[in-house]
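Hey, I'm writing a tutorial for new members on how sequence and structure tokens pair up, and I'd like a real worked example in the thread rather than a made-up one. If someone can provide the structure for the chain below, I'll link this post from the tutorial.
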Amino acid sequence: TVRRPGSGVVVSARMYSLRGYRTDPGIDADIWRRSEVLRGLNQHTLSLHEHAARLGLTPLSSRDARVAQCSLGTLFATILRDECRADVCLYNSGGIRGNVNYGGEPLTYGDLVAEVPFENNIVTLEMYGSELAA
């Protein structure tokens, strides 16, 4: 319970365990049927290794992306830079979450979702190099 002094506003919340509740089999079946497209999409193989090889970024890895440069992060930034026709791309490494060495294994859409699970905005703007260096 949170009370804001002088405002008369009181907000209360309580947690309830849902473990004792059974799911509805009809709803479960409907969810399973409707998510079939997503399950298939998650298995779709991406051609990221081809792009990485062309740029000399093999083997692909997202290991230690939060503390050091990794080939998958460099690949993402390079693709974004090129697609946005920009001179520079800054990519938040905190958004790369897989921490996986892919080697020669194919990457799937499901792998991509595991690597970058957050929706992020892409922003382009004009600025001077001196502003970027600051």
